[in-house]
C-alpha cells in the first residue's frame, strides 16, 4: 500500500520502440489524485533555484519531460531526500506539507500535475513557518 504522506517516484507506462518513439500516459488509475490543474515551467536558468515552499493541501506530481531536474524534499519530521528527474516517463509525487527546492538543467521542461487549483493561501513560503508546523504537531 502506498504511503501518500511521503514523496515517491511514479513510473508511467512507456509505450513504443526506439525506431518509432514513445508515449507515456497519466490516467486516473495511475495517479494518486484527480488532477485539477496542470502547468509547466521552462527556460529556468541553471543558477536559479525554484520551489522554496510547501503547501497545506496541494499534492503534486513533477515530471521532467525534457532535461534534468533535481528536487530536494523535506518532511515535517525532518526527513530529507533528493530525487533526480531525467526521464520523461518518471514523475515525483510530492505530498502536502512537504518543503521542496528544485534545480534545473538549461534545457529542462517540467510539467506539474496538481491536485487543487491555484490558491495563494495554500502556500507556506517561509521555511521557519514550515518548521513551526512540525513542532506544533509533535507537542
Automatic annotation (TrEMBL):
Q: Which UniProt keywords apply?
A: Isomerase
**Keyword Acyltransferase attached:** no
Q: What is this protein called?
A: dTDP-6-deoxy-3,4-keto-hexulose isomerase
Please indicate if the UniProt record lists Isomerase as a keyword: yes
InterPro entries xref list: QdtA_cupin_dom (IPR008894), RmlC-like_jellyroll (IPR014710), RmlC_Cupin_sf (IPR011051)
Occurrences of domain Sugar 3,4-ketoisomerase QdtA cupin (ranges): 9-132
Molecular-function GO terms, alphabetical: isomerase activity
